[in-house]
Amino acid sequence: MDSTIFLLLAQDALTNGAIYILLALATILIFGVTRIIFIPQGEFVAFGALTLATLQMGEVPGTVWLVVALAVVAAIMEAYRLLRMGVSREIPAAVARTLAPPLVVSGIAYVCAPLNLNLGWQVLLTVMLVTTLGPLVYRVAFRPIADTSVLNLLIAAVAVHFALVGLALLFFGAEGFRTPAFSEAQIPLGVLTVSGQSIWVYVMSIAFIGLLAYFFGRTMYGKALRAVAFNRNGARLVGISPSLAGTLAFALAALIGCLSGILIGPITTIYYDSGFLIGLKGFASAIVGGLASYPMAAGGALLVGITESYSSFWLSAYKDVVVFTLIIPVLLWLSLRSVHFEEEE
Amino acid sequence: MSERLLAVSDLNVRYGKVEAIYKASINVDRGTIVSVIGPNGAGKTTLLNAIMGVLPSQGGIEFCGANIGRLTTEQRVAKGMCLVPESRELFAQMSVADNLELGAFTRYRRGDKGIKQSLDEVYELFPRLLERRTQLAGSLSGGERQMLALGRALMSKPTLLMLDEPSLGLAPLIVKEILHNISNLRSTGVSILLIEQNARAALQISDYGYVLENGDIAMEGLSKELANDPKVIESYLGMGGAGQDRDKK
Ligand SMILES: Nc1ncnc2c1ncn2[C@@H]1O[C@H](COP(=O)(O)OP(=O)(O)OP(=O)(O)O)[C@@H](O)[C@H]1O
Ligand SMILES: [Mg+2]
User: A214 CA to chain B: closest CA distance, Å?
Assistant: First the structure.
């Protein structure tokens, strides 16, 4: 391996690592706030990239129908819950609150899809659609069982994963897509040319991580999410409801997944089931941080990115095997240091 | 007589098959301090947790004239109730300032503009919290933690403040200071439901008192009268507090 290849692989490692950092953040956020080990995080990535690809072709993405269907199911569940609590007069308002945002978003997407808007608007539509998906998935699949064990929540998460992959196959077909790059530029940097898209990935992920840091460190809602993750009972006593926090966490996770999908869409071909492996690498990074530490997870994400990139050079067929095998010593080391989780309550 | 703020009637709370509170009825009027005293394991903490909705219960709980028995804890907070639990439940990994700010979460959602001012008031009440505002809550001393718990509760501007042993584990001098602060709160219009091991001090600062024994209200009356009741004196106010380690079974 000469130095050019070395640097080329390093560039790859950084690009992927940046994406894994984002996904690891989302995984930790959801686990902290809701105790859900959220396997389908990668599906938001695939839905992001593929929704954008479909919009590019001037077609209405299936995501629109999924959002509508989930909103209807969520509204029915909400009505049923209120009926059982004996407060049926609150039903109309609650149903309207549940239906309105998803229907508005999917309506806008439906109308705008055939207009062949420019890339920026299509990205915005995609982000709106997929971000809406997050809270709906939470409302339909997880909120009714929010108080069960971590294991039950994990099982539900696996079920959601299979459902979303199946739906993605239905909506987008078995064919892979590559979305157009935000920038075609090739920037010479010494012996290396850096693609404009890689720069986009770096800049966007750093900017987004900065935004998240601001959100969690400085805003009331960000602090509230951290408070729920640290101390669920304490959070309830100051009036932060677990379902509000869960909804917010899922919206953020979907947003993060969708942005990651849009960023890597031009670099990798994304298939309906590509999300799983990408999400799993984000998850592996989060594990390095014990599902709790953001900085350690970021380190983990870079480690995963580097391992993946260099093993793809020597052992390309086995690169995923190498990546996940590498997690084992890390897990061993962590368990020896006994950084582990006690289940609450 | 002033207006009724909290009316708990025939409240039952059970842990599985164990009956922890049986047909307890207590009232808190606006602008008063009401104390609940009783031996360890009598069910005082259980009572407060049930009123706050942390534990499920049967019976009537009315707050400001409305039945709140079905509301979640968060909804009760939004209605103006606030509990400082025995375990404090601070956000140990967050700063003192963040803990205080989060106390006003419900007000923030409502768009209340007075949060900054409340923060200044809490810092004025507890200058030590101001000095330590960037420190993590988990690294505070026991007494500072009690101040933070009380301050965080005040940040929600409660109508009814429920305190579960605010002087737990504190040096006598600080106990005096904390209880003094609590009795001063009454003048700001807050009503207080107070649980205190230190029965003498509790009866001193409260208007009305209940004695809870084995999940039952055994006695009630004006605090002044309770403090002079021979039975109360013998069990709770006597030297060494002979009744204090009597357990449920
Ligand atoms: N989670 C629980 N499960 C079962 N029993 C419980 C539980 N919590 C409390 N109890 C029991 O309920 C009774 C009342 O407990 P509680 O904590 O309310 O007492 P307390 O009056 O606050 O006592 P102390 O003065 O020691 O704080 C006790 O007998 C206790 O053992
Ligand atoms: Mg107690």
Answer: 14
Contact call for residues A320 and A277 (beta carbons, < 8 A)? yes
What is this structure's pTM? 0.89
- CA-nearest residue to B77 within chain A is A239
Instruction: Please report the atom of ligand 1 found closest to the CA of residue B247.
Output: 29
Question: Pick from A223, A234, A236: which is nearest to B74 by CB?
Answer: A236
Å from CA of B198 to ligand 1 middle: 18
Residue A25 lies in a domain: yes
Q: B234, exposed or middle or buried, with CB in 10 Å at 0-12, 13-18, 19+?
A: exposed
Which atom of ligand 1 approaches the CA of B39 most closely? 25
Residue A101 lies in a domain: yes
- Is A328 domain-assigned? yes
Closest CA to A175 of A44, A246, A272: A272
Question: pLDDT tens digits, chain A, 345 residues: what are they?
Answer: 677 788 888 888 888 899 999 999 999 999 999 999 999 999 999 999 999 999 999 999 999 999 999 999 999 999 999 998 888 888 999 999 999 999 999 999 999 988 888 889 999 999 999 999 999 999 999 999 988 999 999 999 999 999 999 999 999 999 989 888 877 778 877 777 778 888 888 888 899 889 999 999 999 999 999 999 999 999 999 999 999 999 999 999 999 999 999 999 988 899 999 999 999 999 988 888 777 778 888 888 988 888 888 888 777 777 778 778 877 777 777 677 654 454 443
> In chain A, where does DSSP find H-type helix?
3-34, 41-56, 62-84, 91-112, 119-137, 150-172, 196-218, 220-230, 232-237, 242-264, 274-288, 294-314, 319-336
User: For residue A193, what are the domain limits?
Assistant: 3-337
Q: Do A238 and B103 lie within an 8 Å CB cutoff?
A: yes
Nearest ligand atom owner, CA of B20: 1
Position A287 in a domain: yes
Look at chain A and report how many structural domains it folds into. 1
